[in-house]
Structures are given as structure tokens and as C-alpha cells.
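Changelog note: in this version the structure field was regenerated for every chain. One regenerated record is shown below for reference.
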Amino acid sequence: MNLVFLGPAGSGKGTQAKRLEADYRITQISTGDLLRNAVREGTELGKQAEPLMREGRLVPDDLVIGLIEERLARGDIENGILFDGFPRTLPQAEALDAALTRLGLKMDKVISLEVPEEILVDRVTGRRSCPVCGSVYHVRTRPPKVEGRCDLDGTELIQRSDDTAEKLEKRLEVFRTEIPKVKEYYRKKGLLAEVDGTGNPDEVYERIRQAVES
């Protein structure tokens, strides 16, 4: 099963994607993680992407597509793929279809998490992350057991540089412009399922699961 997960920053798609990955035993591919790894490792792509990411701007299609194709070439996708945060533009969606076709694969479902913007602001600005294991917390709705420390390894939690109201607004500007085109592209193919992303995470996951299996 090959899935695309669409949703703005703070929609919960990363958290829900982890559950889908575990339950369906598919490989999650997050462009955000791939880009952050490239920046951390100082690769050529990372050097080009870092200033854009710092400003909350969209990384050019050719860089992201190259990164995705590089990741697909590694293998380990025999049970299926969950694309988290990709595609973000129409050219990316078209390029993804072409890449999957070359591999003899096809997209099965596209899930779009729908969350009001005022909720996104609260989720993003309150989010804290562990720089070691990647665990994510929220200062109000999911605080760690010890304030400011990861439950799993005790590492001091950080607020990512793009988890501010100002950076979120820039990311939402891009999302408002580009994602409707991506959704329409998949809607015409009969693949799009829009899912209410508000409320209890378990309730949201149940809606997602029903959409995937419908």
C-alpha cells in the first residue's frame, strides 16, 4: 500500500504517520526528516536547502524530488510507502507519479488532514522536540514527565527554529497557494480523502484508518 499524507505544519500528520507505519508495516518517508538530515550532515543539497528552511520558504522542486528519488533507490519499500509532507507542489506530485511508475508502483490513497489555522498555531508554538530520539511533546497538551526533558532519554527538549508563529505563517502562505492544486490533482484521480484532523489523536487516527481502508 502506497500513501500520501498531506497537511500543514501542526496538523499531526507526523504523529499519525508513525502509527500508520507501525500498523501497516509500510516505510514512512518524510521530506522534512530527509532535509534536516541533509542539513545536519552538510551535504550539498543540505547546504542549498538550509537558508530556505531557516526562512520558512519552500525548497525548490528539483532538490526535493532528487532527495525522494535517492531515498526510493535504497530499497526497503516492498511493503509500501507513506510519503509524509510530500508532494507539496503540483510538479512534485507529477514527478512522484513518474518515479513510482518507473519502479512499477502506483499510489493507492492520498489522505489530507484538515485542521483550522488557529489550532495549528497553538500546536506548533507549543511543540517541543527531543534532538536525540525525535520524540515530540507539547507544553500544554502533552508535556514531558520532567519539565523540559525527554521521557525516553532525559535529553533537554528544544523548540525547532521553524516552530514559531512567524515561521508558521510563512509556511501556511505556501501551503494555501500550492496544496489546493495538489489536492485537485489527486481528487481527479479518485485518490483524495479529506479527514478531520481535530480532536483526540485516537479519534483522528480512527478516521484516517477508515479512509485508508475505504
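Spot check on this record: The first strand starts at residue 2 and ends at 6. The helical segments are 13-24, 31-41, 44-54, 61-72, 90-102, 117-125, 165-188, 201-213.
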